[in-house]
Amino acid sequence: MTPADLSRTVLHAVRRAVDEDALRAPVPARVRVERTRPGGSGDYACAVALQLARPAALPALEVARILRDRVAAEPGIGRVDITGPGFLSFTLDAGTDADTRRALVHEVLERGPRYGYGDALRAEVLQLRYPREVRAAVSAHAVRALLRSQGARVRTSCDEAPDPDWARLGVTVDAHGVPPAPLTAVRPVPAGAEAGELLERLGPDAVRWGLLRPAGHDRAPLGDDLLVQSADNALFLVRYAHSRARALTRGAALLGFGGAYEANTDARHPAAHALSGLLADHPGVLLAAARHRAPDRLARHLEAVAHAFFDFHDSHPPLPAGDEKPSAAHRSRLALAEAAGTVLAGGLSLLGVSAPEHL
């Protein structure tokens, strides 16, 4: 059961409660479900009871109790608890969760770097306009890629003739000069340096990551730490996680096996659950980043995937050690690791950052 599936399940429970007159409140258009934070209970949590308490004229705890029994009866739900002032906490059924993870890994590997692409914005036709400034140009280029990944038709327009050095950053400009309305402005805080100077010092990948990782309203730190090969450098961490996933595939081939999600005795382990949850979240992250014109959301998501990948890799090695024979668990772990590498490669591509197989 993916977060989207669980959200629909909770929304269905709300509709049932309203139809049965157990709850008198307007049914929301959608219900937000989030993965439980470290230290919390269950796999996912939802604040819908707090949202409905006032219109229902009931305490949030009472609304939560009304919804708990209805959600708990749905397929795929193992347990529903009420925590705090009225949060619903969901623990998925282990068998259903394993089936969901199997389907997720299969989908990611089947779709490859285009996993998460969709057509939710197919009705949008946009013209992105930005000033002749390197961060604005790179941001508009990434926003265009995100919007197109969700089906929108997009063109970009620079207010003036583009800087020739932008081409070295992979930036293409559809037009320059002030086009007719309607326009969508892309105006992040300027980088404070020209493209040529940044490229000379950092190279294209570090420049793009440094410009896109901070939110547009924040200043972009463009120091030499973007080139440091350590876990403190998010760019290195993300690219190293991708290259490590590719190395696992090569190592497995030398041992005579490949990734296949056949069984997973680690299914309920927090590291496996956290990684698969982030992979399931990827389509929603792409859509949100496109809608909000916020490539930084995708960059932060890739960081989270990289951290979760290494947590999983270190606690559940996909390759057998010593004289150990490859097992179904190793094949499943390898498939999940390969799916993580695929998501990292696809996300970096949308940001215009390369994903080398060797670092």
Description:
There is one protein chain. The chain is an alpha/beta fold. The chain has three domains: 3-92, 2-Layer Sandwich (Gyrase A, domain 2), CATH 3.30.1360; 125-222; 234-351, Isoleucyl-tRNA Synthetase, Domain 1, CATH 1.10.730. It is 50% helix and 10% strand. It has helices at residues 3-19, 48-56, 60-72, 94-111, 134-149, 195-202, 204-212, 234-254, 270-291, 295-315, 328-351, and strands at 33-35, 44-46, 77-83, 87-92, 125-130, 153-158, 175-176, 184-185. It has a four-stranded antiparallel beta sheet with strand order 1-2-4-3. A four-stranded parallel beta sheet has the order 7-6-5-8, with helices on one face. β3 (77-83) and β4 form a beta hairpin. α5 (134-149) crosses α9 (270-291) and α8 crosses α10 (295-315). The longest helix is centred in the last third of the chain and has 24 residues, at 328-351.
Average predicted local confidence, pLDDT: 90
Q: Which strand order spans the largest sheet, edge to edge or round the barrel?
A: 1-2-4-3
Q: End-to-end distance, in Å?
A: 35 Å
Question: How much helicity do the residues have?
Answer: 40-55%
Run of helices and strands? HEEHHEEHEHEEEHHHHHH
How large a portion of the residues is in β-strands, by DSSP E? 5-15%
Helical/strand content category = alpha/beta
**What is the highest CATH level, the class of the largest domain?**
Mainly Alpha
CATH-derived architecture of the largest domain: Orthogonal Bundle
What low-confidence regions span 5 or more consecutive residues with pLDDT below 50? none
Can you identify the CATH superfamily of the largest domain?
Isoleucyl-tRNA Synthetase, Domain 1
